[in-house]
Structure formats: C-alpha cells, structure tokens
Amino acid sequence: MSLHRIMALFMRHIYLYRRSLPRLMEIFYWPFLDLLLWGFISLYLVKYRENLPNFVAFLLGALILWDILFRSQQGISVSFLEDIWARNFLNIFASPLKPLEYVVSLMLVSSVKIIIAGTIMSLLAWLLYSFNIFLLGISLLPFILSLVILGWAIGIITTSLILRFGQQAEVLAWGLALLFQPFSAVFYPVSVLPPALQALARFIPASYVFEGMRGIIHTGSFPHHELIQSFGLDGAYIGVAFLFFCLVMKTVKKRGLLAKIGE
Amino acid sequence: MAEPIVEVTRLTKFFKALKAVDDVSFSLEPGEILGLLGPNGAGKTTIIHMLLGLTTPTSGSVKIFGLDLEKHRSEILQQANFSSNYVSMPYSLTVKESLKVFARLYHVRRKEEKIAELLRIFEMEEIKHKEVRHLSSGLLTRLNLVKALINSPKVLFLDEPTASLDPDIADKTRTLLRRIKKEQGISIIYTSHNMKEMEEISDRIIFLDKGRIIASGKPAEVVQSFRRRNLEEVFLQLARGEKA
C-alpha cells in the first residue's frame, strides 16, 4: 500500500469538486431532498395515522405515477447524453436536422420508454402486491398524460442546461426531476406541506395529478378542476422549456460550445 | 464561370476577447479540393464549424450553393456532409444501423441500395453487422466517410479525416477520396496537419495563422513563393514566424 498513490487519487477527486459547482452541490442536494421527502411522509403518517384508508393503493399508485414522470424526463435527457457519450452529437447537428425536430424525436423515445416502464411497474404491482392500477379507471389516463408532459418539460430544461454547462451538469439528468418531488405531494397531500410550500405546490402540475389520484381512490369521482389546472400549467412549462432550449441553442452556437460538447 | 459552391466573405469569429477567425474570405469552386492548413489554434476547425452552422460567426457571411447559410441552413445541409476524426458514430449500433439512421436524417431514397453501394466501395461489407464500438480507428474513419457520402453530397467538409490512421490506411483513404471526387464531382474543404497529404490531395490551399489567411494558392505555387522545397518547410517557417 502506498499512501502517495492513494493520496494522488484522493486529490484527483478533490480537485474536481473544488472547480465544479454542480458536483459540489450534489453533496448537499440528495441528502436535502431525502430529508424533505421522508420528513413530509413522516409528518403525514403521524398526522393522519388513524385515517389512512387504502394506504397501499395511495403509495403504490403514487410510486407508479411518479416513475412515469421520471421516465418521461429521463427519456429525453439520458437519450441526449447517449449522443454526447458516443461523440456522435456533431454528426447529428451537422445534418439538416432542426433543433425542434431533435427535441420531438427525444419525446418519441421518451413515450416508448414510459409505455414499457409503466406496463412493467403495473404488472409487478399487480403480481407482487395485488394492486391493480387500472381499477382506478380510465380517468387516470389524462393525469398520466399531464405527468408525461411535465417530464418532457423538465427533460428539455435539463438537456438545455447540459448543453450550456457541459458534462459537469450531467448530474441534472438524474437529479432535476427529483427536485420537484417533495413539492408535488407525491406520497402525501398538499395539506401536509407548510403554507409557503403549499403555495409553491400550486405552481407544479404534478401536485394536481397526485391530489387528483388520491381523490379518485378516496371518493371515486373525477377531479375535473385539478385536471384543468394541471394541463394549464403543463402548457406553460412545455412552452417555457421549448423557448429555453431555443435560446440556449442560440447561445451555445454563438460561444462555440456545441462543437466543444460534441467532440 | 460557374458559381462557387462555397463563398465566404469577411468571416470573423470572436470567443470573448480571442479573435479565432479574422476577416477571412475565400471560395470553393465546383469539383475542387481546398485544403485549410495551419498550426493548432489557427482557426481551421472553427471555420468548418461555421460553414456547417454549428458555430455562429461574429460577422461576415457564408453562402453555399448561392444560398445564405443563416437563412437556408437545413436546405443547404441536405446537400452537404461532414466527417471529422474527432467525432464518432453511435457506438452501440451496428455499422448498418448507424448508416440507416443517417440515411433517414438526410432523407436518402433507396437507403438499402445506397448503403450497400458505399459499404462495397469502402470494403466494409463484411463488418456491416459489427457494433461500432468494436471497430478499429481505421474502420471508424472509413465509416465516418461512408456516413459523409450517404446523401451523395455536392460539398464535403472533412476535418482531419486521416488523423490517427496508419500511413497505409491514410493513403488508401486519400486515393478513395480522389476517386470519389473524380467520379462524383464533389467539392471538398479539407483540413489536416499532414503537409504531404495536403500537397498531394489539394487543388488549392489556404494557410491560416492566428485566424488570418497568410498565404493561398496552388500547393506548388505557395511552396515556390516561399522558396522552400515542400509545404512542410513552409509550414514550419510560418508557424515559427521565420522570415523567407
């Protein structure tokens, strides 16, 4: 064992963290999100412990729906990273392809991933826990679509940030969607959140979806109001995401970053 | 006289305070191979990237096929293509799958026939089902060139296409390029650090240093004007700032 060699590699990683804000933030990011999420779940369990009907349905339903959002985002950002890792990015952008065509193709990839992941998750939940998500009815489908659109928007924003800041921002491909999780009331109602965070949740389409899902399980009635609000916000998110992507594309071309990221 | 394929006028590019390309003007004539030469950081790759619309010029204009690149990028790139030794192909796909992807990107009609024809020309038929990740650097360069010819382009931008190839494969690649140029009348803009290669393949060369054109003309004329024996000596003289 050589202390010099061990220290050499130790320093190699420390140098990396000293220069990279995204990597440095990563150290705080995950524990912070975990603490928030599990803290609110604990609060929910303590507050409503005597009135938790269909808790398994709530939890598994929420997990499957959250995974749909997560896959939707990953379908865009990880597919984009695949082209960077393969050093194929410049070949693609040196073709007649237009930036928006590129984004739409990633949305298609994402849709296929969601269908496969959603089917597998639903089947496993049914086989392992006798939970049939389809018993919630066809009314869940518009909510799923709303989550998919939000996932796309987050995926496009993640992709834009990686384009702009390069490989050091790659961690966002796995982390940005999770930032929305504690405030989307995935595993607990919005009412568990403190008032300031409840106000924040009102601007996240996913919070209406999960509230809507709980409404369907709890009362069996279709929450039209939540659906409209969720789609309204989705429209704004996807619009901003497309605009952001176009602006970033313009900037990276101006700064010559497209060529740098692609080689 | 036929209209130039590429017409670059007063092209300038700043990266913050650094002037990477400085007031460069040139044209590429039909069926011509134009070599861009210069030391590292001379601006060759930046020019190629601006010709492909991957980097936006600070000022100046680029016309390809008589069309303004900024306004007609997609239309122009439909008839152009690019290959660089520093860019790869999707490594998890097979050779044929990768080519099918690019055939679709360029809206190639009769894709199967075109791919088969190019694989035959580049002697790659036997490895068409091999994954790109398993190709040697020589084969990968050839695959990049096949990709670059998939849409039967009228103009090719080749950024150091033979770098990292052994002399035998590099020579075969040059022979193949000359043959394709002759048979298909393609115009080519070519960058390389290999002076012998540039002398051999280029109809005309442009010497760049610190983003500026410092010499241009037919390789033999440039060598003669510097009173040197070959381009290698001209390159060393210019790169080291020595007087003629």
How would you describe what is shown here?
The complex is a heterodimer of chains A (263) and B (244). Chain A is mainly alpha-helical. Helix content of chain A is 78%, strand content 0%. Chain A has 11 helices and no strands. Chain A has helices at residues 3-19, 21-47, 55-85, 89-93, 99-129, 140-165, 172-180, 195-201, 205-219, 224-255, 257-262. In chain A, helix 3 runs parallel beside helix 6 (140-165). The relative contact order of chain A is 0.14. The mean pLDDT of chain A is 88. Chain B has 244 residues and is α/β, with parallel strands linked by helices. A 6-stranded mixed beta sheet of chain B has the order 6-7-8-3-9-10, sandwiched between helices. Chain B has a 4-stranded antiparallel beta sheet with strand order 2-1-4-5. The two termini of chain B are 35 Å apart. The relative contact order of chain B is 0.17. The A-B interface holds A 82-83, 86-98, 250, 253-256, 258-259, 262-263 and B 13, 15, 20, 45-46, 49, 52-56, 73-75, 77-78, 81-82, 84, 86-92, 102, 105-107, 144, 147, 157.
Layout of helices and strands:
The complex is a heterodimer of chains A (263) and B (244).
Chain A: H1 3-19, H2 21-47, H3 55-85, H4 89-93, H5 99-129, H6 140-165, H7 172-180, H8 195-201, H9 205-219, H10 224-255, H11 257-262
Helix pairs in contact in A: 2-7, 3-5, 3-6, 3-7, 3-9, 6-7, 6-9, 6-10, 9-10
Chain B: E1 6-15, E2 18-28, E3 33-37, H1 44-51, E4 59-64, E5 67-68, H2 69-77, E6 80-84, H3 95-105, H4 111-121, H5 137-149, E7 155-159, H6 167-184, E8 187-191, H7 195-201, E9 204-209, E10 212-217, H8 219-225, H9 231-239
Parallel strand pairs in B: 3-8, 3-9, 6-7, 7-8
Antiparallel strand pairs in B: 1-2, 1-4, 4-5, 9-10
